[in-house]
């Protein structure tokens, strides 16, 4: 164990720290979070609008009229989930500008301009609503990163108009952005014209075909997901916030998969969706109860264990675990550098992924719909909402039971050890 710890500290910890602190990955992670409130609102609208009980829809239509059948997909969805690419441009650009310590708002404005320059216009003018949906997500993220980075570099090279000190600061900041904005707009115009002369036609088509789909397909495979899942547990075992590291590079891929499924779901709830592993699969399967799927462990600790130390910790960690927060268990038991609990901690997550992936692949449970489900939504409601089907909730219950069976012999062995220690301490105190 000592040699393994030394190896992790020497090689893996520096790498993980670099990944989790990389300003571009941080910008992507934090920037995508900008849209989360509106995505949740849009998702709740979908759940209500596509509630699988026809009597409910007939009742609502009798109250509000035929508008009931269009309020979600034609009104709320385009204004929330239908703008995810635009939100990504704004959020990623703002986040990266803050990381680069330059004024964020001009960077956001320039990034939006660059994004529109890359979009394909309709023959009658203007832009299709689909330009701002999930299909443009990767283009939006890359545009924001490139435009904002160039903006920061040009400012730091003093390619800016300096106004007299008597000019108000909010005015001078806008003039400072003039030269960088002009150069960046020119660059994006050239990029657009270059790609217009290629078989792809647009940058978006190139990114989706050459970058987005291959990366998403690789990152959402069973083998890839199992690897990521085990890596996450290993990082946490050695005290590294694995979820933050994993999400920094897998988050964009899982988001892309989520929105691809949503596009299919919008067309038809019964249509076959492409991806099993999405952001919601990660939240409500891989990280069910937190890293290591420890909700079942917390339940065993709280209701079956006898040692005061473990029982009290189980009661403390059970309620947060319901909402997929398990730091009390990770650091309290602890699971960090605990050789007794290492085997189940490493074993339960890949078993969970394997069961869930196979259940969906073989048609026992529907694929995730792409509807954004709050990551704190407890089981079985999270799984039910994720799949828009009660079988998603049942799947969560099954994997919790399986996880409990795996954890049980290890935690009870540790419980017996702690109970003996507590009894020995009580005896010593009584004799002393």
The helix fraction, in percent, is over 70%
Task: Output the radius of gyration.
Answer: 25 Å
Figure out the total of helices. 20
How would a textbook summarize the main sheet? none
Overall shape: globular
Q: What order do the helices and strands follow?
A: HHHHHHHHHHHHHHHHHHHH
Which SSEs are present, and which pair or pack?
Elements: H1 2-21, H2 23-33, H3 36-49, H4 54-64, H5 71-79, H6 84-99, H7 104-118, H8 137-156, H9 169-176, H10 178-196, H11 203-219, H12 222-237, H13 242-267, H14 279-286, H15 295-303, H16 308-322, H17 327-332, H18 339-361, H19 381-387, H20 390-431
Molecular structure report:
The protein contains 20 helices and no strands. It has helices spanning 2-21, 23-33, 36-49, 54-64, 71-79, 84-99, 104-118, 137-156, 169-176, 178-196, 203-219, 222-237, 242-267, 279-286, 295-303, 308-322, 327-332, 339-361, 381-387, 390-431. The mean pLDDT is 85.
Question: Can you give keywords for this protein?
Answer:
20 helices; mainly alpha
Summarize the structure.
The chain is mainly alpha-helical and 432 residues long. The protein has two domains: 2-211, no CATH class; 222-431, no CATH class. It contains 20 helices and no strands.
